[in-house]
Amino acid sequence: MQPLPEDSAGGRTLLNSVHKHSPSKLKELELFYEETSTLPPEKRTRLEGEPTEIAKDGTEWREEQLGPHLHFTPIEAYDADGEPTAKARRSIGSRLQSFLCFITLDMLRRIQQWTNQHARQTEQVDWFMDLPELKAFIAVIILRGVTHVPSLRDSWSANLGNPHIIATMARNRFQNIMQHLRFDDRFTRNQRAEIDRFAAISDVWGSFVNNCISSYNPGRHITINEQLFPSKTRCTFLQYIASKPDKFGIKFWVACDLKSKYICNVLPYLGKDPSRPSGERLSESVVMKLMEPFMDKGRTVTTDNFFTSLSLAQRLRSRRTSILGTVNKIRREIPQSTRQKDQAEFTTRVFSTPEATLTVYAPKRKKMVYVLSSMHTVIENEDTPKKKPNTACTGVQERRVDFLIELAKELAKSHVSAKKAHKEEVYLQQPLTPSPGKRAKCQVPGEPVQEELKRRGLQLADFPLESTEGPELALLIGADYYWHIVSGKIQRIINSLVAIESSFGWALQGPVSASSLTDATCMHISVSEGAQISKQLHAFWNMESPGIVDKGAQNSEEAEALSHFEQTLAYKDGRYRVELPRRSEGLISQTTTELQRDVLKALRGD
């Protein structure tokens, strides 16, 4: 933290410090020191012996001039910047190690244990999630926070999905783990919930908060404010705040290092705290609890008008801690004269007590801003440039989104590697040929391709043209040796289908349409034939060819007729001609009655 700039009288500037160290939400303060730098306020001179002003709660305020030193001694300021502790520096060497510094392996094992317990009790007894898969699950949550999509399903879609999420875990598995994710023992929760409303997560949550406190030493300025975590889960401490973007959620009190934005301490709001002393304000109790690990070292806490009060400034000062923040105008310690709305625009008034100073500024007519400070001995207006705080906590500065993406990759690395190794193992265990009893189907060149190959006289090396069955795989040739066996001679067969000559013969390469392929299916069919069924089938086929049933051996007349047919057969004028055979008695003929008799005999099987 750099020292405040000095003026001509050797004092320090209040508005400069407020501008650099107040929370971002305090827009009134921004207007306070931006406008005062352009239009200097009117200074009020105080005569000797001017009486002090007493507020409603009895506080005595002395109105001061802008510039001279005030009548109290400030606390010696903490002069070190925020930095990791020595223990954290020794253990952090990568993004993953920085994550495990806050969410330790012991915490992950407890989450794994309670998640497996819940799943086995509610779904199936063999349900299991190992530690790498849990880290991959957290990686998916981080990536979903980086890439915003309309719904959970879209994170795995082809158009909107994140490729890292798709490669890390299947959507159904992610939803299944989310359904069973637990942070405590479900069998003892009811007993613990009687004294702890946060029992469902308090074990892991307490470890996380302790790790945050022990891993980082914040700088001089710490900011305290509230944060609403969006949620509509059913719990007794769910909050509804209409002014927030998400109306429903769980409220947390958060203390952050001003420069690094590091979470120094955090408390959930669980409703009325029975341990809070009667008469103590909630705001004061929250600030004292959050600042307890960082007291007595000269730090300054920056708050908004919900927390800031003169009594809180006095309690913090007793623990060698300063305060800087806006004050609500309805506080009883505010001087009555400052409540008047006739104060001129861009004017500033200063009041002091032995513990703090109160600056009252009018950014516009009928608008007053009250700033309470216990860290300034001189108050004046000065134009100072804004300084944007760094977002990185340690090491090389890196964009937060880039850091989260790389962290997610490191979290999911072990799980993704295990999945890849398992796929390779399963692939190697599969047989190269289909197992017996299964249908083996292969694609062979269709008739058009085969006819074209026959016409060109090309014999394929991997497929005989006389066969319609796909051959078994005999040789695999890698790309390193492929061109040693290929001569380079090609013939284009059909469209983009090309025949390439090799040392073993011709090979087809290129895409073919469905009409150019023939599916050859190898099947084994066993048929048991009954005598009666066989006789009926023979009779049926004999009926389909009446009068031309092959009777086996030929007699002399039939042999003579066949010889006559072969001798007189001739092809002339595009037609085949043959002379009718004759007997010595006349033409061979068969009456209708004889033909019908033959058909009946065939049906009976005679």
Written description of the protein model:
With 606 residues, this protein is α+β, with helices and mostly antiparallel strands. It has four domains: 14-78 and 295-373, no CATH class; 83-217 and 396-430, no CATH class; 440-522, no CATH class; 532-604, no CATH class. Helix content is 34%, strand content 17%. The chain is built from 18 helices and 20 strands. The protein has helices at residues 14-21, 27-38, 86-91, 95-102, 105-122, 131-146, 163-168, 171-180, 189-193, 202-214, 282-291, 310-318, 400-429, 447-456, 479-485, 531-544, 556-568, 592-604; strands at 53-54, 60-64, 83-84, 216-217, 221-230, 239-240, 248-257, 263-268, 300-303, 322-326, 348-352, 357-364, 367-373, 440-445, 486-494, 497-502, 505-509, 517-522, 570-572, 575-577. The strands form five sheets. Strands 1, 2, 5, 6, 7, 8, 9, 10, 11, 12 and 13 form an eleven-stranded mixed β-sheet that branches. Strands 15-16-17 form a three-stranded antiparallel β-sheet. A two-stranded antiparallel ribbon has the order 3-4. A hairpin with a 5-residue loop joins strand 7 (248-257) and strand 8 (263-268). The N and C termini lie far apart (119 Å).
Topology (elements, then pairings):
Blueprint: H1 14-21, H2 27-38, E1 53-54, E2 60-64, E3 83-84, H3 86-91, H4 95-102, H5 105-122, H6 131-146, H7 163-168, H8 171-180, H9 189-193, H10 202-214, E4 216-217, E5 221-230, E6 239-240, E7 248-257, E8 263-268, H11 282-291, E9 300-303, H12 310-318, E10 322-326, E11 348-352, E12 357-364, E13 367-373, H13 400-429, E14 440-445, H14 447-456, H15 479-485, E15 486-494, E16 497-502, E17 505-509, E18 517-522, H16 531-544, H17 556-568, E19 570-572, E20 575-577, H18 592-604
Helix pairs in contact: 1-2, 6-13, 16-18
